Structure formats: structure tokens, C-alpha cells
Amino acid sequence: AQSVTQLDSQVPVFEEAPVELRCNYSSSVSVYLFWYVQYPNQGLQLLLKYLSGSTLVKGINGFEAEFNKSQTSFHLRKPSVHISDTAEYFCAVSEYGNQFYFGTGTSLTVIP
Amino acid sequence: KAGVTQTPRYLIKTRGQQVTLSCSPISGHRSVSWYQQTPGQGLQFLFEYFSETQRNKGNFPGRFSGRQFSNSRSEMNVSTLELGDSALYLCASSFRDNPYEQYFGPGTRLTVT
Question: Residue A45: what pLDDT?
């Protein structure tokens, strides 16, 4: 089975500062990678996904992520965060698209 | 287009009871997956249904079961509830031809006392 590690459980960052949320996965086979965001009392919303092609993936709300196969990483970045980015972020991996493995989440808090 | 809906949103049960949760996918979606979300374990995959058939199953005890109806609506059932079953249960649906985009419902918050 796959495993996904989100290295930081909590990340505080000041408004308009850049942020990176780290994600590593365990797999030697081709995988598909995802980042989801969860706002309080809501379900998960897809931020971006990597299926193939360019290793730099752009998503919604100004987020982007880079797939690094040699390091089995898929870190999420945003150059300038806003208060509204405060939420829980989940990295996920899937081998065949029908079963997803999620990390334990990173709580991003944007400080005014 | 309406999103994924889950009912009820909140539920309180007592140990030993059973519970049924419902999920209505987005119109046209035939795949429905269920996840358990807890603070310590994050999201854990329970099972996935497609066209009324369970296609994948996670590592949960047999007390957790599910089914899917011909209209793609899905239910999950937990029997003999334990305190550790307290969690947010999320349902996600997707198109058959695009399994990589799951759309999540708001979840059902189950509290077992």
C-alpha cells in the first residue's frame, strides 16, 4: 500500500509571505498526485493534480506544486498567501485512480 | 449542478448501536468512495462503489459495510459502534472516465458516546 507523509502538521505564516507545504510518498511505480484543501466544516476541494507531463503543476487560488520523482516528493507552494488561505491541506496519491491514499494533513494558518 | 450531498450532517450514537449514513453523488457520477477522517489518522479509505459493485476496499473491520443503489446513491453502515468510530465520514464521487477528480461532500460528523 501507498503511504503519504506530510512533514509539517502545522504551518504558521504571515500574510503576503510565501509558503511551502511538504509532501513525500512511498512508491516505486508511477503514481498520480493531488493536493486538496479543506475549509472548516466543509469537504475537500481539489487544488491541483499531477497525472503526467510537466512536473510543475498550477492549480486554483494561485497554488502550484512540483513533482520530483527522484525524491518522491510533491511539495505545494504559493508565493504570497492571503488570510483566506487558512485551511487544512491534504496531499494524496493514487496508483490507478480508484483508491486514494491521503496524508494526515497540514494546517496552514495565515497571520495578519 | 448540485454537489455531493451527505445526510445527516451530524449524528450522535451510543456504543453498541448501528448507524447508516447516506451519500448522493453529483448527477452522472457513478463512482462513490467513502473515507473516515480523524485527527490522528487523517483520511482513510473505506471502500469504493461503481455501478452497485464494491470495487475497492480499505483496511477496516467487517463492521463497516456499504452499498450502492441503481441511481448511484450510496449508503454506509457501521454496526456495533465503538468509541473509536467517532469521526467525520466523507463521501466522494467521480466520473468513470475521470477517476482522478473526486468531488467531496461536506461529510457526516458521527459522535459515539
Answer: 92
Amino acid at B83: L
Contact criterion met (CB < 8 Å) for B106 and A51: no
DSSP secondary structure of B14-33 = -TT--EEEEEEPPTT--EEE
Mean pLDDT of the B27-41 span: 91
Q: Map residue B98 onto helix, strand or coil.
A: strand
Three cell numbers, residue B37: 477522517
Cα B39 to chain centroid, rounded? 17
Give residue B58's region: left, alpha or beta (phi > 0; psi -120 to 50). Answer: beta
**pLDDT, tens digit, 9 for 90 and up, residues A36-69:** 999 987 889 999 999 888 889 999 999 999 999 8
Q: Do A43 and B33 touch (CB under 8 A)?
A: no
Q: In b/e form, how buried is each residue of B54-66, taking b as 16+ CB within 10 angstroms?
A: eebebebeeebbb
- Residue B5 carries which side chain, given as an amino acid letter? T
Give the model's pLDDT for residue B88: 95
- Mean pLDDT comparison of A48-57, A87-96, B85-94, highest-scoring range: B85-94
Confirm or reject contact between A104 and chain B (CB < 8 A): yes
